[in-house]
Design brief:
This protein has 399 residues and is an alpha+beta fold. The chain is 40% helix and 23% strand.
Length: 399
């Protein structure tokens, strides 16, 4: 039974009413890490793994949600919403509702059933997937239509203000705007974006280290503060500097004496990473996968040495991949301190790649990694079930 039909059946077992089904994908970032909250450039793509939400309206103003993944129930009164529950899955759901209500979009009460297959804690943005799927569902159930870019902004705001993670907009944006067989080159300041086709002879292979070091959340916010400190220093020397997006390597080096060494290195990563993204777009446009892969390698080195968000497990996974035939490029992806690497692998080498990486990683760490493969997929939308068949996602409440 397909996911949408299965979710519809499960919904009928716990709630009244006929549900509508919405899905939103996770993402993997090919290149452009920790640049989004610095107004920079990123190149993510949506993946096949998604979060699914079944929803039907209620006659009151309560949101009642059940997560199949956590076997857990939560509810709130939209007229008296509580503060977000710390470290609880429901904060991603209710945070989106809170932001929409705060922006003047009066929601109807609803029953929600949620199921996700984006690995949690792997750096593939399960949080954005649940936020965007929930946003699509809540808006549709309340007969509210907004622009899709506004949905991405609202979901980012929910994570910033309700969940407490000061993320940029990349994850929510690509979950909304992803396209089949394409990466998305996004300018995180203007939100201008272009689709960049990924050659059909490669597979995206995501290798999960199966570790997530506890310092990840606090260190993420610390990195952002260090970038902001560097920006303030350089803004004193150069007009128009609002973020590291406005700084060149020459500007940065001119201010090196004014910056603590650690802040200089954080800024050097962001500035050089922005340049790598623009070069990566050019490489994909001409199908130069070798060049694209080299840029991925440079990105990982910078994240490891300058931004210091890698870890021994990620470095090992990247080193194992680089030795294998058919691998164009490998790097850590996501916030860091564990999670996944992203690898561009020639299609005919995927199975041997999976076997070799799994064997080598397990031998070195005694951990058995999970390896997911995907092509770039479609962004969020409603899934309509017709005669038991599940077609491609239809349009959602976000245009």
């Amino acid at each position: 039974m397909d996911r949408a039909a299965g979710l519809k059946k499960a919904f009928a077992e716990i709630y009244p009413g006929e549900p509508r089904i919405f899905r939103a994908p996770g993402r993997v970032n090919l290149i452009g890490e920790h640049t989004d909250y610095n107004d920079g450039f990123v190149m993510p793509c949506a993946i096949a793994a998604s979060t699914w939400v079944a929803i039907a309206p209620r006659p009151d103003r309560r949101l009642v949600a059940y997560s199949q993944d956590f076997s857990d129930h939560a509810e709130i009164d939209l007229d008296d919403p509580p503060p977000g529950a710390e470290h609880h899955w429901s904060r991603y759901v209710f945070g989106v509702a809170w932001v929409l209500e705060s922006a003047g979009h009066r929601l109807r009460g609803a029953n929600l059933l949620i199921k996700g297959d984006v690995p949690i804690g792997a750096g593939l943005s399960s949080s954005a997937a649940i936020e965007v799927a929930t946003g699509c569902a809540l808006l549709a159930a309340s007969d509210i239509r907004i622009k899709r870019v506004e949905l991405a902004k609202f979901c980012q705001r929910a994570e910033n203000q309700f969940v407490g993670t000061r993320c940029g907009i990349m994850d929510q944006f690509v979950s909304c705007f992803g396209a089949v067989d394409s990466a998305l080159m996004l300018d995180c300041r203007t939100l201008e974006h272009q689709l960049v086709r990924i050659p059909p002879n490669v597979t995206l292979a995501m290798c999960n280290t199966m570790v997530k070091h506890e310092l990840a959340s606090g260190e993420y916010n610390r990195r952002r503060e260090e970038c902001e400190r560097g920006t303030r220093t350089m803004a004193k020397k150069k007009d128009g500097v609002r973020a590291l997006r406005d700084v060149t390597l020459e500007d940065l080096n001119a201010s090196k004496a004014d910056l603590p060494e650690v802040v200089y290195r954080r800024c050097r990563h962001v500035v050089s990473e922005n340049a790598r993204v623009t070069q990566a777009v050019e490489a994909l446009h001409i199908g130069d996968l070798a060049r694209f892969g080299a840029l991925m390698g440079e990105s990982h080195t910078s994240l490891r040495d300058d931004y210091e968000v890698s870890c021994s497990e990620l470095d090992l996974m990247v080193d194992l991949a680089r030795q294998l035939p058919g691998v164009y490029g490998a790097r850590m992806t996501g916030g860091g301190f564990g999670g996944c690497t992203i690898n561009l692998v020639r299609n005919d080498c995927v199975e041997k790649f999976k076997e070799a990486v799994s064997r080598g990683y397990a031998a070195a760490t005694s951990k058995v990694p999970e390896i997911y493969t995907s092509t770039a997929g479609e962004g969020a939308g409603e899934v309509r079930i017709v005669d038991g068949a599940e077609p491609a996602p239809a349009s959602s409440a976000a245009a």
